[in-house]
Structures are given as C-alpha cells and as structure tokens.
C-alpha cells in the first residue's frame, strides 16, 4: 500500500458494522492521519496546556506537562489526545467560523472519545490534565511561540492572560492583538 494513503500501515479492513458508526479502529486511523499532518512542539509555555499556530500546522503542548500519566497501573501517553483536540478545535474555528467555546466543546468530545476508545478512564485523564491547567495558568509566561494563535484567548476575553502575554513582550504580539 502506498505511504500517501490515510493509513499506510494497515490495509482497509471491512468492519462488522456499518463504517459510519464510530469505531475504535476508525478513530485510531483518524488520529494517526492528524498526527502525520501536524508538527508537535513541547518547548514553549502554552496557556491552558495546549494551542496551535496561526496556520494550524503546529500543535504546541506546554513544556511543563508530563508526557505520561498512570491509569490503573498502565502508563498512558497524552500527546495524541491533546493533538486531536487542538486540530479539531482549530479546524472548526477556521473552516466553520465557530466561536472558540463552541469549537472547544466539540474538540473535548472528540478527545474524550479517543481516550475512552483506548480504554482509558476519562475521569482519571481529565483529573490529570486539570491539575496542570491550574499550575500552568498561574506561572509567568517566559517562552511563548510568536505564531501562537491568540483567537481562543481573545474569544474568552481573558484580559489577565492577554496582559501577561503583552508584558512578556512576545515577538509580534502588538501587531497580532489588533487583528479582528
């Protein structure tokens, strides 16, 4: 099978149910396709744990977030779920012009579906993430990517965060904040 197909390592396999039903196999293939289309960066301070570049080609995950957590003795890598969330959110905002909060809700449901499809407790996963959202949200921002899409922060009217980003004198911030 050519490597340009949507899932080069696994041939098409007929499912026992109609392929329009949500299935773990189809969800895994979707996540894998997204992972091949974006670049992951984990070397920045990212408000609210994760974000994306203005062009959507780069997904940023906060440098302080551990790459794994343990659920019932099993080590779980978290990047793929955050990448799915951010890619879905960005696509809904850009392609359908949804408000951030609406896109975020749908992206969270996609993230939850992927977590549950991998037989991971959503409650444990979410508890892990929430403890880092608070810790990261309280820190000073030192190293934020210049191309971080600021629309989610503007849509949420997070004035405190926007002020902290401005104080950090982020490259290109002054010109980006004036865009509609």
Can you tell me about this structure?
The structure is a single chain. Helices cover 47% and strands 12% of the residues. The chain has 180 residues and is of the alpha+beta class. It has one domain. It has a three-stranded mixed β-sheet. β2 (50-52) and β3 form a beta hairpin. α2 packs antiparallel against α3. Residues 173-180 have low confidence and may be disordered.
Provide a compact summary of the structure.
By secondary structure, the chain is an alpha+beta fold. It is built from seven helices and five strands; from the N terminus they run αβββββαααααα. The chain starts with 23 loop residues before the first helix and ends with a helix.
Secondary structure tally, helices = 7
Largest sheet: number of strands, sense, barrel closure: 3 strands, mixed
Round the mean pLDDT to the nearest integer and report it.
82
Give start-end ranges of low-pLDDT stretches: 173-180
Label the overall shape.
globular
> Strand pairing plus helix content: what structural class?
alpha+beta
Whole-number tally of structural domains: 1
* Rg, Å, rounded: 17 Å
The portion of residues forming beta strands comes to: 5-15%
* Beginning-to-end CA distance, first to last residue: 45 Å
* Helicity, as a percent range: 40-55%
Topology:
Blueprint: H1 24-37, E1 39-44, E2 50-52, E3 58-62, E4 68-71, E5 74-77, H2 79-96, H3 100-117, H4 122-138, H5 151-155, H6 159-167, H7 173-176
Parallel strand pairs: 1-3
Antiparallel strand pairs: 2-3, 4-5
Helix pairs in contact: 1-2, 2-3
């Amino acid at each position: 099978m050519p490597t340009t197909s949507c899932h080069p390592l696994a041939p098409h396999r007929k499912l026992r149910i109609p392929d329009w039903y949500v299935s773990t196999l189809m969800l895994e293939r979707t996540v894998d396709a997204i992972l091949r289309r974006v670049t992951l960066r984990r070397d920045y301070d990212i408000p609210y744990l994760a974000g994306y570049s203005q062009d959507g080609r780069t997904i940023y995950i906060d440098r302080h977030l551990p790459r794994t957590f343990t659920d019932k003795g099993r080590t779980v890598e978290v990047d793929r779920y955050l990448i799915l969330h951010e890619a879905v959110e960005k696509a809904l905002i850009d392609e359908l012009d949804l408000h951030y909060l609406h896109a975020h809700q749908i992206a969270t449901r996609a993230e939850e579906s992927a977590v549950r499809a991998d037989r991971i407790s959503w409650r444990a996963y979410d508890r892990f993430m929430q403890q880092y959202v608070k810790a990261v949200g309280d820190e000073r921002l030192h190293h934020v990517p210049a191309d971080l899409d600021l629309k989610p922060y503007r849509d949420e009217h997070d004035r405190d965060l926007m002020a902290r980003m401005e104080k950090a004198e982020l490259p290109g911030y002054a010109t980006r904040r004036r865009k509609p």
